[in-house]
Amino acid sequence: MANYTKDQELINRWVQVIQFLSHKFSDGVDVDTEGVLYLIGLQEYGRPHEPLKKEDNVNLIHVGLCTVLEPFGYYRFNFYDDEGWPHFELIEALPSLKPGEQSILVKSAIVDYFVRQGVIS
Q: Distance from CA of residue 68 to its chain's centroid?
């Protein structure tokens, strides 16, 4: 887990993530924070070609969030259910943060995920 003490470092890496996804999905996929979490959730779910129900979209964002926050010690992977959905256990409650601080935490976690995946450096 990187400690982004300089806002500019996080901004630069976030831009790398967005550029990578924009290039990879040039067909108009939403690449805001929620969209990135959705894509991570879809990647972790591993069944992108199955038809998804409306509530599955929310579940994919949750899976993405749990996945990126796992190395921060907030969640731990628990198991895959019979339908292949990953389940996580809450280990430590998320801190009470202001909206801007929440954004920094989530973007830092997303950037770290893409660094671990070898997509950005």
A: 5
> 81: burial class by Cβ within 10 Å (0-12, 13-18, 19+)?
exposed
How far apart are the C-alpha atoms of 57 and 121, rounded to whole Å? 29
pLDDT of residue 31: 80
What is the overall mean pLDDT for the chain?
A: 88
Q: What is the DSSP letter of 11?
A: H
* Spatial separation of the C-alpha atoms in residues 84 and 120, rounded to whole Å: 28
Q: Domain spans of the chain?
A: 7-116
Which residues are CB-neighbours of 64 under 8 A, at least 6 positions away? Answer: 36, 37, 38, 39, 40, 41, 42, 44
Q: Which DSSP helix (H) or strand (E) runs through 87?
A: strand 86-90
In the prediction, which pLDDT does 52 show? 84
